[in-house]
Amino acid sequence: MQVQRKRVLLFMLVAVLLSGGCRPSGEAEKTPESTAFTYVKTGMLGLPDLPVPGDNPQTPEKIALGRELYSDARFSSDGTVSCATCHNPATAFVDRLRVSKGVKGLTGTRNAPTVLNSAFLKTQFWDGRRPDLESQAKDPLLNPVEHGLSDHEQLLKIVRADQKYTSQFETVFQVKAEQITIDHVVKAIAAFERTIISGDSPFDRYLFGKDEKAMSPAAIRGFAVYTGKGRCQECHMIGETSATFTDDKFHNLGVGFALVQPKLQQILEARAKGQAEASDEKILTDRETSELGRFAITGLQEDLGAFKTPTLRNIALTAPYMHGGSLTTLQQVIDLYDRGGEANPFLASGIRPLGLTPQEKSDLIEFMKALTSPDLPK
Where is the signal peptide (predicted)? Predict the structure, then answer.
C-alpha cells in the first residue's frame, strides 16, 4: 500500500508540472478534435500516457475536490445517489447490478461501465454520446432514473451554500461562490476520475515486464487463444508498449437487437424525418431506444445495434456484462462470441463462429482473470 501511495503522489506531481496552472472553465462543449492534450506518464506498467485536456489540468487540490463531489449524495433529488452509487470504489467502480438503480429505486436500461481507466477512452457511455469525462458527468445529474435533478442549478445551490466547497472552488478555480458553474463542478469530478487508473496486472508483468512466471500456464495458453483462434485482439487491442484493450469503436454483436428488429423500417423512416432523435433521458428510460446503440446518436444505418468495445482490464471484477447487463459470467460472454454473436442484418462483419474447444474457453477465462490489477484505486 505504501508503494501504491507513492505512485499516486508521483503521478499527481508529474501531472501538475506538465499541465500548468488552472484556468476558468468555458461553456462550450469540447470535441476530441478540438481539444489539446497534455500526455502524462502514469508510472504504471501496461498503461499508455494519460491524456489530460489543456483546459482542465490536474492539481492535487482539484483532485481532492473532485473526490468529494464524486461521493456527495446530496446531488440527487432524494439525497440517496452519488457518482459512487453506480461506480462504487469498493467494487471496482461498478455496482454489479444488471442495470443501475437511481433515485427512488428507479432502474434504467444500461449496465454501469467501470470508471477504472475510463480516462483513456475517446468517448464516454456505451453509445459514445459524450466526448470526454467532463461532459459525461453532467448527464446523470439530470436523468430522472439516475440523480433526478430538474436542473444543474439545484446542485449549484448546495455547493454555493457549503463553506468548505466554496473555499475549495476558490482555491482551485479562483472563483467566488456565486461564480461557480456546473462546468467547474464537472472539471473537478473529471480530474478525480483521471486518477482512477490501474495497470501492473499479471499480464502486464508477463508481456511488458518480460516476467515469464507472472501468468499461469493456463493464462499463457489463453493468451495464445486471445491473439489467435479467438480473434479477441481485433477489437480488444494490445499495443507494443501498452494496452487499453479497446479499439474505441462500436460493434453490433446482436445482443438485445431482437427487441427492435421487427420495427426497423419504422425506426429508419422516423429517423429520416428527424422524429427519432435520442436524448440521454430517452436512452435510459426507453428500452427500444437503448437497444439502437450508436445509431441513436449518429442516425447512421451501420451503427444500428452497435455498442462501444469495453476495456477488458479488471473484467473478472465487473460482471454483469454487455450494455444491458444480460450476461452474468465470462463463460457466457465467451460462448456468445464462440457462436458468432446473435444473428441480425447488422451484425459486425468480424463476428463469426470460432469453434473453440472447452479447454480453449477455460484457458481464455484464465487469461482474462490475469488482467486484474492487484492494487485498485480506492
Answer: 1-27
84 vs 74: CA distance, rounded Å: 12
83 annotated among ligand-binding-site residues: yes
Domains 2-193 and 202-369 share a fold: yes
Q: Where are the domains of the chain?
A: 2-193, 202-369
236 labelled as ligand-binding? yes
H helix runs in 174-216, sequence order: 182-193, 202-207
CATH 3.40.50.720 fits 202-369, yes or no: no
CA 19, CA 339: separation in Å to the nearest integer? 47
Ligand-binding annotation for 232, yes or no, is yes
CA distances from 142 to 66, 93, 280 (A): 19, 21, 9
The pTM for the full model equals 0.90
87 is in an annotated binding site: yes
Per-residue pLDDT of the chain in tens (378 residues, 90 and over written 9) = 443 444 444 444 334 333 433 333 333 345 545 569 999 999 999 999 999 999 999 999 999 999 999 999 999 999 999 999 999 999 999 999 999 999 999 999 999 999 999 999 999 999 999 999 999 999 999 999 999 999 999 999 999 999 999 999 999 999 999 999 999 999 999 999 999 999 999 999 999 999 999 999 999 999 999 999 999 999 999 999 999 999 999 999 999 999 999 999 988 888 877 765 678 999 999 999 999 999 999 999 999 999 999 999 999 999 999 999 999 999 999 999 999 999 999 999 999 999 999 999 999 999 999 999 999 997
Beta bridge partners of 250: 308
CATH tag for 2-193 (out of 3.40.50.261, 3.40.640.10, 1.10.760.10, 1.10.10.10): 1.10.760.10
